[in-house]
Amino acid sequence: MGDNRIDVVVADDDPAVREALADLIDSHPDLELVGLAINHEQAVRAAVDHRPQVVVMDVHMPRGDAPSSVRAIRDQVPGARVVALSAHGDRETVLDMLAVGAHGYLVKGTPAEEILEAIVRASRDQFSMSAELLADCAEPLRRAERASWRFEDLVGNRLEESYLELLGQAPCGVLVVGSRGRVEYANAHARHMFGYGSAELRDKRLRDLVPERYHTASEQLIGRVFTAPSAMTGRRRDGTEFPAQFSGGHLQGRQPRGVVFIADLGPLRAAESRFRQLIESSPDAMVIVDEQGRIQAANNRTEALFGYDRDHLIGRAVEALLPDQPLTISLREWDDSAKEPLGHSMELVGRRSDTKQFPADVSISPLRTEEGLLTVLTIRDITEVQRAQFVLERSLELLEVTDRDRQALLSHLVHAQEAERGRIAADIHDDTIQVITAASLRLQQLRRRLRDPEEQRVMDKLDETLKLSLSRLRQLIFDLRPSSLEHGCLAGALRGLLEQIRTETGITYRLEDRLTTSPPAETMALIYRTAQEALMNVRKHAHAKTVHVQLLGLDDGCLVRIVDDGEGYNPLEVESRPGHLGLSLIQERAQIAGGWCRIESEPGSGTTVEFWVPLGDAPGAPPGPLGSPEPPEGDLQP
Questions:
Q1: What is the pLDDT of residue 135?
Q2: 598 by DSSP, 3-state: which?
Q3: Which residue, among 117, 7, 1, 19, has the nearest Cα to 434 in the 3D structure?
Q4: I need a labelling partner for 321 at 20 to 30 A (CA). Which of 79, 245, 278, 615 fits?
Q5: What single DSSP character describes residue 618?
Q6: For residue 511, what pLDDT is reported?
Q7: Of the candidates 263, 253, 262, 261, which has an alpha carbon nearest to the alpha carbon of residue 164?
Q8: CA 189 to CA 195: how far, in whole Å?
Q9: Which residue has the higher pLDDT, 153 or 217?
């Protein structure tokens, strides 16, 4: 073995491909085959034993996974470079391999010369990938770069003007103070609040707008990045004063300037009076409790419900109305306003003045005031509600048993269907694609030995036919088992399907993913297959130019909306014809999952397909009002 020879290990679980690659490497004068492996475990062991410069590895092999194998080889044999060779060319698989340090990624069916060149380049620490794969993987980066450029351009030209325009529309008073501590800008609210014209406020100091006792506090608002709201008093031009809340901050721009926000608290006093009137007019009992759990106020309905005079209740502990209950009304744990349980409700037991008890629904809400943190308790007698609930629960027991059986059946069906698709895809990858790949490699080796141009042309055509077969088989694998779906990405799987339709038919698409919760695996498969059926109808029958797909979170479920601009049809006429099973399958899949489906179309106006399924732990929830929202009435557009 010469000093310039490149040692290579080949790892592929298909014997025909493995032997074809071995012969191909032996045919190159600068390459030396030093080891073979049939699974991931053997690939790592062969790399450690033979310490090659390059490992050619099939991505999908038994006993491990490709990213883990690449990491193990890089850790134990730092000088080895991995070139991936796989039937899968989807973006997720490619990026997974590149993320762990692979030096190349080729799909099976790549010309033999390119495979040999990739091995040589990897030995030189150079990267290899087909232009098509590289463009697909780089597209998200190009979109991010264009978005960043647009944002920087906007910030560079409009930032300061946008800030001032936004401050002018603020619902409170706003003063912009320059480096000399003088007012440079005041919005309409500030001018009205203090009674000055725009020119009169300019060049005034903030201390000129507050009484003398607040001069020091007002000066502390200037030049700070942010100050918490502080209660002070404002002074108008005519000398009158009004309660106000002041806060300060820093205005980003070409020059350092401060901004002061002023809120007139005078209307708040009037709001307090209206709040008390609101409490009195409430149909439920309402009690206001302080931090020590003592009643500070109660409305007329409280007197009627509990039989106490309100003067008798003021100052008493709330346990007089809700005794021996796990009710914590102390607000010491509610200091973080983001965690305040607004409108939090619980079912407790109330006790009237005659000691009779009744079930009560108690809603607990914090109320921040100048006097401190209070609690508003809204109490409702739910005796009749509980009676009705008892009857309803008994009526639903049979429905619940039926629903569990339906859920189990749906789960079994979805699992069985996806398992069968996975088995077929695996058989295609492990048998058909491997055999065709081996034949392609053999064919390319044979072509290099031919000298007759006519024979070479025949071999080229045969090679193109094999490549076309490989491409179609890879697409079939994607259709049967989208890799994005296996990675838990519903939007990615649908994007791949839409891209396939665009490539084959020219139909452009727009995909919106507004789901904030990832569906369970079986529900995700059901959503994908239902959407796939609808999109196949668009592809075959709609004669559309564009299709818009939306994934929306709605009422603890997923709403899928598919809208095309095709020629449309009469649903009643088409669905009644024999052989139109696609529309029925869409509706049946949604209904068996506990959801609903709606199809709206008319000739010349395109078609809209909407279906909703719940996102529970497993597919299947009671249909209609028991477990899913009703389909919308009228216009289907958002």
A1: 63
A2: strand
A3: 19
A4: 278
A5: S
A6: 94
A7: 253
A8: 10
A9: 217
Q: Which of 451-455, 487-491, 510-514, 583-587 has the highest mean pLDDT?
A: 510-514
Most confident range (mean pLDDT) of 218-232, 247-261, 498-512 is 498-512
pLDDT for position 407: 58
Tell me the CA distances in angstroms from 397 to 193, 387, 390, 391, 500, one per residue in order: 63, 16, 11, 10, 47
Kind and range of the H or E run holding 298: strand 295-298
Tell me the two tokens of residue 226: 């942010």
Nearest to 299 by CA among 282, 316, 315, 312: 282
At residue 6, the pLDDT reads 93
Q: Which range is most confident: 207-221, 265-279, 563-577?
A: 207-221
Consecutive H or E run containing 463: helix 453-480
pLDDT score for 209: 92
Those residues with Cβ within 8 angstroms of residue 283's Cβ, 6 or more apart along the chain or in another chain: 301
Residue 629 DSSP code: P
Is a pLDDT exceeding 70 seen at residue 467? yes
What is residue 403's predicted lDDT score, i.e. its pLDDT?
61
pLDDT, position 54: 95
Phi, psi of 338 (to 5 degrees): -70, -20
**Which amino acid is located at 297 in the chain?**
A
Distance CA 196, CA 175 (A): 13
pLDDT reported for residue 12:
93
Q: Please name the residue that has the structure tokens 């239902």.
A: 530
pTM as predicted: 0.40
Instruction: Tell me the HSE value of 573 on the side-chain side, using a 13 A CA sphere.
Output: 6
Name 349's bridge partners.
359
Measured CA to CA, the distance from residue 615 to residue 618 in angstroms comes to: 7
pLDDT at residue 428 is higher than 70: no
Q: 351, 352, 300, 292: which is closest to 317 by C-alpha?
A: 292
Region of poorest pLDDT, from 131-135, 369-373, 438-442, 623-627: 623-627
Question: Is the backbone of residue 5 left (phi > 0), alpha (psi -120 to 50) or beta?
Answer: beta
Which residue matches tokens 């799909």?
A: 107
- Statement: residue 635 has pLDDT above 50: no
Among candidate residues 591, 137, 135, 536, the one with its CA nearest the CA of residue 403: 591
DSSP for 322-351, written as a single string: STT-------GGG-SGGG--TTEEEEEEEE
**3-state SS of 29-94?**
CCEEEEEEECCHHHHHHHHHHHCCCEEEEECCCCCCCHHHHHHHHHHHCCCCEEEEEECCCCHHHH
Q: Per the structure block, which two tokens stand in for 504?
A: 């084959």
Buried b (16+ CB within 10 A) or exposed e, 433-455: bbebbbbbbbbbeebeeeeeeee
Say what the pLDDT of residue 621 is.
39
Task: Print burial letters for 375-399: b (CB count within 10 Å at least 16), e (below 16).
Answer: bbbbbbbbeeeeeeeeeeeeeeeee
Q: Which of 370, 284, 378, 364 is nearest to 330 (CA)?
A: 364
Please classify residue 64 by burial: count the beta carbons closer than 10 Å to its beta carbon, then call 0-12 exposed, 13-18 middle and 19+ buried.
Answer: middle
Rounded CA separation 331/327 (Å): 12
